[in-house]
Design a protein that fits this description.
By secondary structure, the chain is α/β, with parallel strands linked by helices. Helices cover 35% and strands 14% of the residues. The protein has one domain (30-141, 148-171): Rossmann fold (3-Layer(aba) Sandwich), CATH 3.40.50. The protein contains 6 helices and 6 strands, in the order ββαβαβαβαβαα. The longest helix has 17 residues, at 138-154. The protein binds iron/sulfur cluster. Iron/sulfur cluster (SF4) binds at residues 38-40, 76-77, 103-105, 110, 134-135.
């Protein structure tokens, strides 16, 4: 359960901004799309299990359809051959959408500094939060997720229509 947004409180009433209400609702109902290609995905499985209980953040529904997901979690090594597929999944997600690079491979290519491995998914799509580790423990994944929640909670509803955001997408060749 999230804290109530800042606002004006009185006997029998509470007033706040629409942006804050939308941010609160979105941040506690993120639907992740786990794009797991290797070992970091196993840590995500542990994060979803009963002990770490990802459900308590309102994210118990992993989506394997990009059209019903708003948080792309990339976990594992992304080969250059896989890069167009990842980009297509990202572009199929509706706005607003967020991205976490989980682990060293997704963030920077990790130990695989080779001709065939993408040296970080931010070469092809924008990333909001990077989670360090090889692999990160479930606590690290949860910490990264909490940071995404903060971003979501505080994002202006106008950001996605702003020229800066359009420019960001254009820099990745995304319309
Ligand atoms: S960061 Fe480490 S654990 Fe994660 S996919 Fe790469 S090699 Fe595997």
């Amino acid at each position: 359960m999230g804290d109530a947004p800042a606002g004006v409180e009185g006997s029998g009433f509470f007033a706040t901004t629409l942006d804050q209400v939308i941010g609160l609702a979105r941040s506690h109902s993120l639907w992740p799309l786990p794009f797991a290609t290797s070992c970091c995905g196993i840590e995500f499985m542990a994060t979803m299990g009963a002990h770490y209980d990802f459900s308590r953040f309102g994210s118990e529904r992993p989506s394997f359809s990009p059209r019903q997901a708003d948080l792309l979690m990339v976990m594992g090594t992304i080969a250059k051959k896989m890069a167009p597929v990842l980009k297509q999944v990202y572009t199929q997600m509706a706005e607003p959408r967020w991205v976490i690079a989980v682990g060293a491979c997704a963030s920077s290519g990790g130990i695989f500094d080779t001709y065939s491995v993408l040296q970080g998914i931010d070469e092809i799509i924008p990333v909001d939060v990077y989670v360090p580790g090889c692999p990160p423990r479930p606590e690290g994944i949860i910490d990264g997720f909490n940071k995404i929640q903060e971003l979501v909670k505080n994002e202006s509803s106008r950001r996605r229509n702003s020229p800066e955001y359009k420019q960001l997408l254009e820099s990745y060749g995304i319309q």
